[in-house]
Amino acid sequence: MQSKNYNLRSKENKLTTFDMKRFAITIMVLLAAAGLRAQNFEEFFTNRTLRTDLIFSGDATTQHIALRALHSWQGWAGRTHNLNQVPLKGDGELSLTDEATGTVIYRTTFSSLFQEWLGQEEAQTTQRAYEFTILVPQPLRPAILTVQLFNPSQEVASEMKIRVNPNDILIRNCDNHPTTPYTTIFSGSDKEKIDVAIVAEGYAADEMETFRADARATVEALFSHEPFGSMRERFNFVAVESAAAESGVSIPREGIWKESAIESHFDTFYSNRYLTTSAIFAMSDLLTAIPYEHIIVLANTDTYGGGGIYNSYTLTTAHHPLFAPVVVHEFGHSFAGLADEYFYDTPDIATNFLTPEVEAWQENITNLVDFDSKWADMLPEGTKIPTEVTDKAEKEYIVGVYEGANYLTKGAYRPAVVCRMRNNTATQFCPVCQRAIERMIRFYTE
User: pLDDT band at residue 356, thresholds of 50, 70 and 90?
Assistant: First the structure.
């Protein structure tokens, strides 16, 4: 692609008195409208969690969504504001619409292992089904629950609508469900906090002290990175002591299969280091009645690997020497929806639906279709696109538009030469990723 100058200060805006008055009136109208749209949590929801268990199935051509079950328990740990807004588009969306008024009362977006699998060659010839769980606040009155999966062009590929009646006797009441033992690792002081459950995977019952130490190390690793460190008071972390029948996790390429708590394994999509679980319902059962919004799973192994899926979970090895940078990297995926910024000549895992026609929804990559919506405002004046890689840019995390990202060498661009989302040796997130994480934290807490 031919280089070009991107000068953010090349145009001078001159407003007349009339323009300024009209602008002020417009802002007042928009603020008033926003106030009308703002929703009171207690108007539509009760203080209960509704766990929605779904099955995603199909192949590269056709996908389906089915409801498996609904579970309910006392307490809601999620957000009670920004209810009908989403911070990112994601690869799918769930919404709740009040049946009586037609008002959208809750929305959330997500990605899934199923949708990553759709990018694999196997999906061209084979049908598979994957489990998925989403937590929503339980509505006071009947509501329509809509789940959508998006295709690579970010259009709706599959949709399911069901009527949710909070008085339905077949919604499983889990108030008396045995709670997995858990320990608070860190508790912030802010009223609105983000609740993160750190789950033990492959730790035997007599290894829980090791797990608790690993959980504390996880929190320390996150807080050693900005903006997590300066915004730590907005987080709660609990260590969920889910004991396994066997110590360790499954490594299929070595013929090792373990009876672990959530049946995680390496070699996902035949990629050695990709550590995931498909046993989402089993993991959700372990977390029943525990206050959480986000999940970090620690695997009791020194084998290198991990995985992070937006608004689903982070799963990473706990005893490899690179544990600290990897768990932070993977949480960047699952919490903030950040994309990988590294690349290969031949990708060996799915490419997260990056297409040349539609701007990627992740905030830290671009294909230049709509770069103004990304980090154009953060570029130093006179920055060329693509941006040349220099030693200075690498050492100082200078924001630019560097080609190579999201596993692709061409057509995908990242904001920095190095970043926690690209290198295990990077000391921090790049400025663009830091802003994306801060925006997400503020979305959940303000």
Answer: confident
Residue 235 CB burial class (10 angstroms; 0-12, 13-18, ≥19): buried
Tokens of 62: 């056709």
Number of structural domains found in the chain:
3
Q: What is the pLDDT of residues 69-87, one digit of tens each?
A: 999 999 999 999 999 999 9
Do residue 325 and residue 384 come from a single domain? no
d(CA 441, CA 196): 12
Task: Based on the fold, state whether residues 214 and 149 are members of the same structural domain.
Answer: no
pLDDT number for residue 84: 97
Q: How far is 123 from 61, CA to CA, in rounded Å? A: 8
* 136 and 186 share one domain: no
Shortest CA distance to 248 belongs to which of 264, 268, 267? 264
Inter-axis angle of helices 323-336 and 208-223, to 10 degrees?
70
Domain with 412, as residue range(s), is 379-427
Higher pLDDT, 276 or 409: 276
Confirm if 387 and 393 have CB atoms less than 8 A apart. yes
Q: The pTM is what? A: 0.90
Q: How far apart are CA 352 and CA 268, in angstroms?
A: 15
Provide the b/e sequence for 283-320 (b: ≥16 CB within 10 Å): bbbbbbbbbbbbbbbbbbbebbbbbbbbbbbbbbbbeb
- Up-side HSE of residue 336: CA atoms within 13 Å toward CB? 28
